[in-house]
Amino acid sequence: MSFAARQQQAEAAWQTFEQPDRLRILVGSATCGRAAGSLEVMQAFAGELAKQGLTEATDVVEVGCLGMCYAEVMVEIRGRDGKRVLYQGVEPRHAAALIEAQLVRGEAYLPLALAMMTGADEAVPTFADLPMIKPQVRIVLRNCGVIDPTNIDHYLARGGYQGMTRAFAMGPDQVIEEMKASGLRGRGGAGFPTGVKWGFARNSVADQKYVICNADEGDPGAFMDRSVLEGDPHAVLEGLLIAGYAIGASVGYVYCRAEYPLAIERLQTAIAQMRELGFLGADILGSGFGFEIKIKKGAGAFVCGEETSLMQSIEGKRGMPLSKPPFPAVSGLFGKPTNINNVETLAAVSAIMEKGAAWYAGYGTEKSRGTKTFALAGKITRTGLIEVPMGISLRTIINEIGGGVLDGKQFKAVQTGGPSGGCIPAQFIDLAVDYERLAEVGSIMGSGGMIVIDEESCMVDMARYFLSFTENESCGKCVPCRMGTQHLLRMLTTITEGRGTLEQLEIMRKIGDAMKNASLCGLGQTAANPVLTTLQYFEDEYRAHIVDKKCPAGACRALIRFDIDPARCTGCGACLRACPVAAISGEKKQPHTIDQELCIQCGSCRQACKFTAVLVA
Amino acid sequence: MSEQFPLETILADFGRERDNLIPLLQEVQERFHYLSPEAVQAVADHLELSENDVYGVATFYAQFRFVPPGLHHIKVCEGTACHVRGSDRILDAISRSTGLKPGQTGDDGTFSLERVACFGSCALAPVVVVDDKVYGRMTAAKTNKLIEDKK
Fold first, then answer.
1. Most exposed residue of A363, A570, A590, B89, measured as fewest CB within 10 angstroms of its CB?
2. What is the pTM of this model?
3. In B, residues 69-98, which contact A (CB 8 Å cutoff)?
């Protein structure tokens, strides 16, 4: 069957899926959704449909993630009138009411209705106008939560694999020019121009070349790549295939971390579908280009996100970085020219090849074109996965998309780039987010983790947290990283315990500088960033720990004590029950007290108290 | 536990090239839940590597375990989002109620405890995973109840 004929077939399948007169229930079932209980919700719907005799008339489909993680479990229901309503916070117990309201009576179920996907309703806003959605431009996430990720017809019908056929028609050199013209830069964090990188690998002469998709998303606090792989695996695989075609590689690897079992499952399904349709194997669609894709599971090493380490790992070795040159484009996997791109980059590649470089370059800023996904988490009201045009302000991201800081607390900083990045203080809230502006304030774009920090988080503790991570993950090969992370962690720990000295601040700056200049790979070169940026913007917090022996945020356990305000305490006993070490005593309806000898400063009482009677000092 | 499952059957599915080492160790651990000295020896023989080589690779990666896990394996996420929402308190609570430190398996074999860098379910922070089921938005009290239920 020709590609055009196959595409028509997919169109027809998509039309059936989108057919307005058929009842349909979509359940967001990426890892986040499943963790929130989406599979139980699906079961409840199936049971309820059977009761109502609607099983035959209704499609129940698992889809990827719309990115509104705070509102999980999310369910979209299409009733007989064709109107599609998105519901939030759905639990199994809601299934009966939702089906009764929308599928039987034909009305939206208002208590849970979040938005109208199609059609208008007086009481429910339309999806595109939601404050979380309106500022977004979804290119990489174009299909996430919209299509069934296990159905290649859905991907095809929405323009999938047209980028591939367009690439075949252009020829490899022109594909590379197209990438350069799009302005796409590596979304793994370093931001190197993708087209230029491909050019290097294309120019290397060898009997065998490789392309690798880096899906070893190791930054704690980042889940963009997982969501794309789970919600739209073909977008990434098509990008990998195009990269292989452009540089002349016949084998592609997806190196995916083992902590993402659902992503791996979706990739395996997608690869089997590609093979069935002749998008893998010899002479794909008569282009003369042959390609195979293999999956390699990572085994839990952050340093394997570094390209040379990743290749060592694929070869079955310890994942330690190599010095460059030689660069992978000359001598990479098994000593052959190799090109590595991250998941998000490849998902953008397939879109660019479908719609053209000029279209993509129309978004973003002069040097940072297109869009960027971010995993918005931490102390924010609406956590989720978002995609925004480059150049958007932090204020828009945090206040509009994210709905502001959780529980109305004071915004203190935002952490970008994970353990390699830095903390951007509140004074830069109007900063335009692109590669250059983030670097100017001492942070990095990174792969897209964005953690919002409020007044209750201690910046010294944040730095200590990241250093405990990098100290643990440092492979130990080069001295600056191995020793540097150890010393920084030791000093940060003494400071958070109130045993630090002012002299340590200067020593930490020097160590950080040495690590930047002398470490072998990106891990060590950037590991001091969390310390350096917090020292730059929050030195007063460090001084408070050292000089006053106080933690202003009330987070460092060695420096705080909890007390109960007798004026506010109602004697309800919630704190007494929550205390894990029985340090709280008091009669019913009388103010309670905390035994400081027994207290372990866990904060459970403070969390449990409904009257803000537990004070921290 | 599939202790009776023959190691040879797993080995037979893999070629003898070195790049099979990590997938092979993953498969062995998947079946036996940890890497026993005998299994490491067998993998080394199959790939014509020294035991040292195999241990060198296996100990480099956080995924591999060398002691059997408990009946209920508890993983506490230590990602950034979980950290700012109090994951260290949750780890403490679990340590207190099970008597285990991260990396340990209890003497009676009921529980084992592990710290994990990030599950990528940051929006549900803090996250605890017990026997591969993800529990989101945890508190110390909820965690204690979960552990009691499994006891």
1. A590
2. 0.93
3. 78-86, 89, 92-93, 96
